[in-house]
Amino acid sequence: MDFNVKKLASDAGVFFSRAMQFTEEKLGQAEKTELDAHFENLMARADCTKNWTEKILRQTEVLLQPNLSARVEEFLYEKLDRKVPSRVTNGELLAQYMTEAANDFGPGTPYGKTLIKVGETQRRLGAAERDFIQSASINFLTPLRNFLEGDWRTITKERRTLQNCRLDLDACKARLKKAKAAEAKAAAEHELRLTQTEFDRQAEVTRLLLEGISSTHVNHLRCLHEFVESQTNYYAQCYQYMLDLQKQLGRFSGTFVGNAESTSPPAATASPPAAAATLPAVPTIPVVPTIVGVPSAVAEGVLNPNEVKPPASGTRKARVLYDYEAADSTELALLADEMITVYSLPGMDPDWLIGERGNQKGKVPVTYLELLS
Asked: Residue 306 contacts by C-beta under 8 Å, 6 or more apart in sequence?
């Protein structure tokens, strides 16, 4: 018990001495042992690394999980050292709703079929998002978090110890200056040598830890490359999934439009002049005049591009937005950014046009084109 009281009194004395030294330094009433410029640069670099690592970590977490409550839940599970429960992504939830809606509307209807196709793509997008989040968490977030919770805490602890050693050293220097008697000076000098040795040892330990920040940068650079690779693969997957969906919708849109038009009343053969005069003019794709045999062939879904004659005037230029692979000999394969000539035929599906490129000719989907004047 006596030992503990003495130790407590000794610790309180050391704390009081450090507090007095720190206060006098702030007031300019005591000298302060300055660290060399290289050491100061190492500490500034370490502080900068810590601050930016925290910001990058937090914002990456927001990028991967925008929902604040979900992030808090994951944080609590992490602190409790428990496995985070699997969570359905937004894309997978949307896919579920679309599939259920298709079943209610009828999976055989045009709208139901499209919902199923889009829902399946959303499910694939959601799965790709899940894989990306998992990869980014393991390869990028975890190393950043380990640095802040491991290496940086060690650096902070050793820097605090170094600060205490410096305060003790400067306090010893002040006591040596105030000592008058020879015995007091000898005791102060002995204490100063011990304190200087402890300070030098702690300074070397802290310096080695601060120089390790360079290795931390190398490790974080490797993790950053892995993050970019994961993100690239994720967006490439999403792009391919959407291209596939767009091709499917473009290929089957004729069937959907045809079914929709079959339920609408037939158009009148002629409109009254007064009604026609009140309607605004709407620019449309030039339509080839009726050619014997061609409209019926188009209506039956059979088109021989070689038999189609372009209109004498009124064709339009179009820029291709995406690559398109022809499904059969009646379609024209497209390359992004190329220019082609387009026009329509009587009775032709409005989602398709006839495209010409040199001597090549075939059907092209409107959704892949930017029509120019």
From this structure: 361
